[in-house]
UniProtKB/TrEMBL annotation:
A Pfam family that the UniProt record links to this protein: CitMHS
Name listed for the protein in its UniProt record: Citrate transporter
InterPro entries noted in UniProt: Arsenical_pump_ArsB, Cit_transptr-like_dom, Diverse_Ion_Transporter
Location relative to the cell: Cell membrane
One GO term describing the cellular component: plasma membrane
Transmembrane feature ranges: 49-71, 92-110, 174-192, 224-245, 251-268, 280-302, 322-345, 357-382, 402-420
Organism: Mesotoga infera
GO-annotated molecular function: arsenite transmembrane transporter activity
Domain Citrate transporter-like: 14-363
Bilayer disposition of the protein: Multi-pass membrane protein
Length: 424
């Protein structure tokens, strides 16, 4: 009956998160602790916590938050904001579309959390100049980051996991996932431009003050700026070349954080506010829940059920596609893919399912991750940043109402793409 206990904890935790009655990070973390205290994970010892919690993801988050924090103190984001507004010539519509496309492009070559951390301060400055809440602008950026990250091996953590399990490389992801990424981005930009951003088109005059600023005066210290940028680009190079140099991206991010603090004379206490601790502990709780679901046999049960569909490729692919999308959206793309990998490995080795099935869960989990706050790290980080900056609460339901229509559209487009791409 251990599986029933884990399932009850999981359902109750997600109900409390969705209801918005309690802090989502507290609920997820508490649920994880309950799982550990219940001993449903046999012979668990705290020394083995690294097997449950993906500290690679946690380390990347903390490292990049620190590096972005050092950049923030130099005035870099104000400098960029002024230049971006000038390039758009005060046209809010052009500005917002530019943000979305650029964020998607960056997210393909950085992880989507890093991209959101980079662009959020710029978006906040623009929203403040327009005298509006940054909510819609940054949420649009979050959706773009999730879509852009779908295109490459390094763009989204689920793809990193899938690449490791399947053996597919960078160019394989770009070749297969790249086309649907462009289609999904186009759908998202058109939808948000017509349905969400239309109310802001007439506010261009409010950007004049920001555009009239001297961008060079925003820089607090050129020396600190150059040091922070050198560290940042060093981290990007490390992310791109980590396979060649044999260093994990998480260690690259932490090394960059250490270098940024040493070069700029910063301490952890001075940058502690730049770390989204709620997001960190939310992730830790989710990882424990996902591991428990696997440990009590729910994974093998689902694998057996899906194995009965192996004789019908069309039904199997579509079932896995929407199952992965919904799981990615509501329990998180990383936990969902972690959960699905042993299922896929069992099906390809025991039931003769073709390796194309990996692309099904890659596309569906990455796109489906935009469904809810829990779907992707970028969602949680983005919501945390909005709440911290604007002092407004953004509930699970608020996010769902914003993201669901366009996420369903992109998932339907993904379904059509898979049917065409794999001749189903």
């Amino acid at each position: 009956m251990q599986w029933l206990f884990v399932l009850i904890v999981f359902v109750v935790a997600y109900y409390l998160i969705i209801s918005g009655k309690f802090n989502r990070s507290t609920v997820a973390f508490a649920a994880g602790i309950i799982i550990l205290l219940s001993k449903v994970i046999p012979n668990f010892d705290m020394k083995e916590l690294g097997y449950l919690v993906d500290f690679n993801t946690i380390s990347i988050l903390i490292g990049m938050m620190i590096v972005v924090g050092t950049l923030r103190t130099t005035g870099f984001f104000e400098f960029v904001a002024v230049h971006v507004v000038r390039v758009s010539k005060g046209n809010v519509r052009v500005l917002l579309i530019f943000f979305m496309v650029t964020i998607a492009l960056f997210s393909a070559f950085l992880d989507n959390v890093t991209t959101i951390l980079l662009f959020a301060p710029i978006i906040f400055l623009v929203a403040d100049a327009l005298e509006v809440s940054p909510r819609m602008f940054l949420l649009g950026g979050v959706l773009s980051a999730n879509i852009g990250g779908t295109a490459t091996l390094i763009g989204d953590p689920p793809n990193i996991l899938i690449g490791s399990a399947s053996g597919f490389g960078f160019m394989d992801f770009l070749r297969i996932d790249g086309p649907i990424t462009l289609i999904a981005l186009l759908i998202t930009v058109i939808y948000l431009d017509r349905k969400v951003f239309k109310d802001y088109r007439s506010m261009g005059d409010k950007l004049k003050r920001l555009a009239s600023m001297d961008p060079n005066k925003a820089i607090v210290s050129k020396s600190a700026l150059y040091k922070s940028l050198a560290v940042f680009f060093g981290i990007i190079a490390g992310f791109l070349l980590h396979g060649l140099i044999g260093v994990e991206p998480s260690l690259v991010a932490l090394a960059g954080a250490a270098a940024a603090m040493i070069l700029n004379g910063k301490s952890f206490s001075s940058l502690s506010e730049d770390i989204e601790w709620d997001t960190i502990f939310f992730f830790m709780g989710l990882f424990v829940l996902a591991f428990a679901l696997k440990e009590v046999g729910i994974t093998s049960f689902i694998s057996g059920l899906l194995g009965t569909l192996s004789g019908n490729k069309l039904v199997l692919f579509l079932t896995l596609y929407w199952l992965s999308a919904l799981m990615g959206g509501f329990i998180g793309a990383v936990p969902a893919v972690t959960f699905m990998i042993p299922i896929i490995q069992g099906m390809t080795s025991n039931y003769g399912v073709p390796s194309e099935i990996w692309w099904v869960i890659s596309i569906s989990a990455c796109l489906g991750g935009s469904f809810s706050i829990a779907g992707a790290a970028a969602n949680m980080v983005g919501v945390g940043l909005i709440e911290k900056h604007s002092k407004e609460s953004l509930t699970y339901g608020d996010f769902l109402r914003f993201s669901m229509p366009v996420t369903i559209m992109t998932l339907v487009a993904g379904t059509a793409y898979i049917l065409f791409r794999f001749s189903l």
